[in-house]
Amino acid sequence: MSYKIAQIRLVSSHPEVYEPCDDSFALVDALLSDRNNLLELKPMLCMEVGCGSGYVITSLMLMLGEEANGAQFIATDINHHAIRVTQETMESHGVYAELINTDIASGLENRLAGSVDLLVVNPPYVPTPEDEVGREGIASAWAGGENGRSVIDKILPVAEKLLSKRGWLYMVTLTANNPSQICRQMMKKGYASKIVVQRSTVEESLHIIKFWKDNDIEADTNDTITNSKAVPLGIVDSVRSQIQRLSFWGSSDINTTTN
Ligand SMILES: C[S@@+](CC[C@H](N)C(=O)[O-])C[C@H]1O[C@@H](n2cnc3c(N)ncnc32)[C@H](O)[C@@H]1O
């Protein structure tokens, strides 16, 4: 079975929609590096919060391909221009996801509670003044408030609510977001974590963290953690992109087809 994601073409854009960048590429690399595990997981419901141009959700659908076996895909974005751009990106690649213009998953929590098997998020994570968070337009793509955590800290409890018992969450974070603290916070809720991809660029140091429910971690409201098996925090399982750099927006012919 072959799959292609490197030929995602620029078919639509908008000045207020986030154009895929190193963080988007790192997230897709993380998903690619875990593709075999994802196929074994057989996710029935996959979701992206903050789909932007549609690069990630389209890549995910193409990557899972026919082997996704009837999985459903949903993506949300608070920016209505992003919904249109994602729609056009998906259409031109022959894939379909339900697209919803909403704040994180507002209005969907009851419908989707406990049923999302795969959740992917590249949130606004850049530390900014708090009043820049959630502004109209392109600023909402990156403005993360204090320590870049404002939107992340709203997404995490929603993720917990939406994820199924076997659900996995992949999230982009920056060193400034204090990823180990995020992992500890999630561990208190019963989630193990590991850094799937760590990548430093000139501007930032990115971590793509994978979270999954671990029954050996006893969630404790008193902030204590009992954990016999989870990956110790700080241990990095870096795949350092063994995968060819993805091309995007109609550039070269780089192709990550495998057989
Ligand atoms: C860093 S961009 C990532 C876009 C795309 N997923 C990618 O990786 O290229 C963050 C996206 O999250 C969206 N976003 C910001 N706050 C949001 C919220 N509260 N609910 C839903 N989407 C949000 C932005 O509009 C933007 O499209």
UniProtKB/TrEMBL annotation:
Subcellular location: Nucleus
Residue span, Methyltransferase small domain: 47-182
Major subcellular location class: nucleus
SUPFAM superfamilies, per database record: S-adenosyl-L-methionine-dependent methyltransferases
Pfam families: MTS
GO terms for cellular component: eRF1 methyltransferase complex; nucleus
Keyword S-adenosyl-L-methionine tagged: yes
Gene3D superfamilies for this protein: Vaccinia Virus protein VP39 (3.40.50.150)
Annotated InterPro entries: DNA_methylase_N6_adenine_CS, Euk-Arch_PrmC-MTase, PrmC-related, SAM-dependent_MTases_sf, Small_mtfrase_dom
GO molecular-function term, one example from the UniProt record: nucleic acid binding
Superkingdom of the organism of origin: Eukaryota
An annotated GO BP: methylation
Key words, A-Z: Methyltransferase, Nucleus, S-adenosyl-L-methionine, Transferase
Family: Belongs to the eukaryotic/archaeal PrmC-related family.
Protein name per the record: Methyltransferase small domain-containing protein
